[in-house]
Each structure stands twice: as structure tokens, then as C-alpha cells.
Design goal:
With 262 residues, the chain is α+β, with helices and mostly antiparallel strands. The chain is built from seven helices and 14 strands. The protein has helices at 2-18, 40-56, 86-90, 159-173, 185-193, 207-220, 241-259, and strands spanning 28-33, 36-39, 61-64, 76-84, 97-104, 107-115, 120-125, 128-131, 134-135, 148-151, 178-180, 199-203, 223-229, 232-238. A hairpin with a 2-residue loop joins strand 8 and strand 9 (134-135).
């Protein structure tokens, strides 16, 4: 697909032009949210990628973290997170990525996740899931009690979400082998898609955090998890149906205990 080949080149160029070699300690620009940061690299990378897309596809739409976070995904739409895992990036932790998905009339056509620190360009389209140009089929055979599950960051100032996260964490500890929090949705979904971890779950995610990595996992053959209760959502991807059943049970308990008190 022309758009896929185009954007793969753009995200690599964006890293080389806007991120590579920048000094981490000098990058803070402002507090974007109460518990989040944005750097010059986030802003400049998003500007660069959007300008490339607009030049080639001037009539397309965008939902992007820094400049188009309130936009509606419609028609031909690009979903962009210029640096997913900004806190890691700012602190020199090599767990972050550039991620983007292309949606047409509500249907995801492809997604790209670029992890420069691991030299990994991952993408998926209707033909399957690929790592550095090679079609990849992960080993998804794992029992729940032997699984490593990662989950979204805790949000202590969002009281309901924080309680849901606590419930998920406490119950997962008693059901799976290990629980991890890496701080980058794209990297965590990529670990599931490549079989390194057996699941990643989020609570009430932004579309730019969720969609690219979720699509990779779907095309890699993973199972999609989505549980909703009273306006709160747990969503993610896991290796197989057994883990899905177990994680969904855990999510329902965590949501029920929390949302019935809202």
C-alpha cells in the first residue's frame, strides 16, 4: 500500500531529524497534564510527520497527541503519537517509540510502531504482522499462571481510574507469573505481538496510545480484551483465549468493585 511504504520512511526520517542525538536533560518544555510531560522532541517530531503527510495527502485528517488531540477520526485519518513513553525518553530510559495508525472510514488499514533504541520497525496490514520487513508469527502458547502481563501507568490524581488500576494489579499478582509497567503502550503492545510478553492492558486509553499497538497484536494473532462498566474501560491484547478469559474476569471484578461506588 502506498501510504504504508510512505509512512515507514517518514517515521525513520523523523527520528533521525528530530530526535537522534538530542540531549535528554535539556528537553523539558512544559507540563502538558498534571502527571505528564512534553518535550521539544515530541512537538518537533509531530510537526515534521504531520507536515510530510499534509504535503503528500493534503485532504487527509489527523488525530495526534500534541496538536490534534480533540479531533474526530473521520474519512482518511492518521492517528499519531510522536513519542509514546515521553517520561522514559526524557529520562534516558530506552523504552519509547513513534507510533501511527491509518484509518479509513473507521477501519484501521495499517499501523506502524518504530522503536529506534531496539532498531525495530514493526508494522501490520491486512496481510499480517512484520518486524524489520519479515513476516512474524509469535509463539502464543502460554498458560495464565506462567504469563507476564504489563499494564498502563498508575494515575493517582484520577481517583476512579487509580482504584481500577489497583484492583487490576492486585488480582493479576495472584493469577499470573509477573506484572510489569514499562511506560510505553506502543512498546508494551509490541512485546505482546512478538511473544515476549503475554498481555498488555490499559484503562480508558487515548486513541493514539491504543490503536497502533492494538492493531499489531490483532494481526499477530493475539486476542483482544475489552471490558466496559459504567463508563470505564479496560482494553488490551493477550496471547490466547485462556489468558483472555482470565484477564476479562479480573477486569470485570476490578471494574465492578470500583464503578459501583461512583
Amino acid at each position: 500500500m502506498e501510504e504504508l511504504e510512505f509512512i515507514k520512511k517518514v517515521v525513520v526520517a523523523a527520528y533521525k531529524k528530530q530526535i537522534k542525538g538530542k540531549k535528554f536533560a535539556a528537553q523539558d518544555k512544559q507540563n502538558k497534564l498534571y502527571d505528564d510531560v512534553v518535550t521539544e522532541c515530541d512537538i518537533n517530531t509531530e510537526k515534521y510527520i504531520l507536515s510530510c503527510i499534509k504535503k503528500k495527502y493534503p485532504n487527509d485528517n489527523f488525530v495526534s497527541e500534541e496538536f490534534n488531540s480533540d479531533a474526530t477520526c473521520k474519512g482518511r485519518c492518521w492517528i499519531l503519537d510522536p513519542i509514546d513513553g515521553t517520561v522514559n525518553f526524557k529520562n534516558g530510559v530506552p523504552i519509547w517509540c513513534i507510533q501511527i495508525a491509518f484509518v479509513v472510514d473507521g477501519q484501521t488499514n495499517f499501523a506502524v510502531v518504530y522503536v529506534p533504541t531496539a532498531n525495530k520497525l514493526l508494522w501490520a496490514d491486512e496481510s499480517g504482522f512484520y518486524v524489520n520487513g519479515k513476516k512474524f508469527q509469535p509463539n502464543l502458547d502460554c498458560q495464565t499462571e506462567l504469563a507476564t502481563i504489563t499494564m498502563t501507568d498508575f494515575s493517582p490524581k484520577e481517583k476512579v481510574r487509580y482504584k481500577i488500576q489497583q484492583g487490576l494489579y492486585d488480582q493479576l499478582l495472584n493469577k499470573v507469573f509477573r506484572v510489569r509497567i514499562l511506560g510505553s503502550a506502543g512498546c508494551e503492545f509490541s512485546c505482546v505481538a512478538t511473544g515476549k510478553h503475554q498481555g498488555y492492558i490499559m484503562t480508558n486509553p487515548n486513541i493514539w496510545d491504543l490503536l497502533p499497538g492494538l492493531f499489531l497484536c490483532e494481526k499477530a494473532g493475539c486476542e483482544i480484551v475489552r471490558v466496559e462498566q459504567n463508563g470505564e474501560t479496560v482494553v488490551g491484547a493477550v496471547a490466547n483465549k485462556q489468558i483472555k478469559e482470565d484477564v476479562e474476569k479480573i477486569a470485570k471484578v476490578a471494574l465492578n468493585k470500583t464503578t459501583k461506588c461512583k
